[in-house]
Design brief:
alpha+beta, single chain, about 220 residues, Jelly Rolls, 7-stranded antiparallel beta sheet
């Protein structure tokens, strides 16, 4: 029974570490190519993301230097990146819960984030801080919530940087039907991310760790 108890606690820790993975960009490649103007909307099949479809939108909002100013969104194995040349202002979105061909969420995901209310992005690189917005919503309940934040600036791949937004307290987290993420970097700004997930509140993780430590101490005394 003692081993079973330890297995239960370890299983809980493992569940916390894995819970809420939304996208690690290992499936569903996407590349706008180098653009100087206009916008691009694509839906990409990716079996490992919620709903099996990732919606992408990319727009060049302004370009002060014409054909010499270019920008690109690229999604390759394990990385989602946006790059823009000097004088080019871009905007990028990623969405989940969208059927192919739809610009509005219409593919209910029925995700439960009630135990993992912290929305987390693993940031691979930035040159300056990048404003971003996350919207979670339930079409079933007609509810949604928005949070705004910044990807940290001057990030390099070796830094293991993370950006988080806290959705705790929202009443619909046990029935999230769509996820919308928008990035609005400064003119000429670049960034890349490697993972999107939801994680437990820090107090929850600490509580599990303390329970495991207490269990280990009891085993030693036995």
């Amino acid at each position: 029974m003692k081993r079973l108890g330890l297995a239960i606690i370890l299983g809980s820790v493992a569940a916390f570490s894995q819970a809420g993975l939304i996208d690690n960009f290992t499936q569903g490649s996407y590349d706008t190519g180098l653009l100087t103007t206009g916008s691009n909307f694509q839906w990409v099949n990716a079996a490992n993301v919620p709903g099996g479809v990732r919606a992408h939108y990319f727009e060049i909002e302004s370009n002060d230097i014409g054909d010499d100013g270019r920008a690109r969104t690229f999604l390759g194995p394990g990385i989602f990146s946006v790059t823009s040349g000097a004088g080019v202002d871009v905007y990028a979105e990623i969405g989940y819960g969208f059927n192919t061909g739809s610009a509005s969420p219409n593919l209910p995901l029925n995700l439960d984030f009630s135990g993992t209310p912290i929305f987390s992005l693993d940031v691979r690189s930035t040159d300056v801080a990048v404003p971003y917005t996350v919207i979670l919503g339930s079409t079933t309940l007609g509810l949604s919530a928005q949070r705004n934040g910044f990807l940290p600036g001057a990030v390099t791949p070796s830094m293991n940087a993370v950006a988080t937004l806290d959705f705790s307290g929202e009443s619909f987290l046990n029935d999230v039907d769509f996820i919308f993420i928008a990035f609005d970097p400064v003119v000429g700004g670049d960034f890349s991310i490697t993972k999107i997930q939801t994680v437990p509140e820090p107090g929850t993780i600490a509580g599990v760790g303390l329970a495991l430590a207490a269990f280990a101490r009891r085993r030693k005394k036995a």
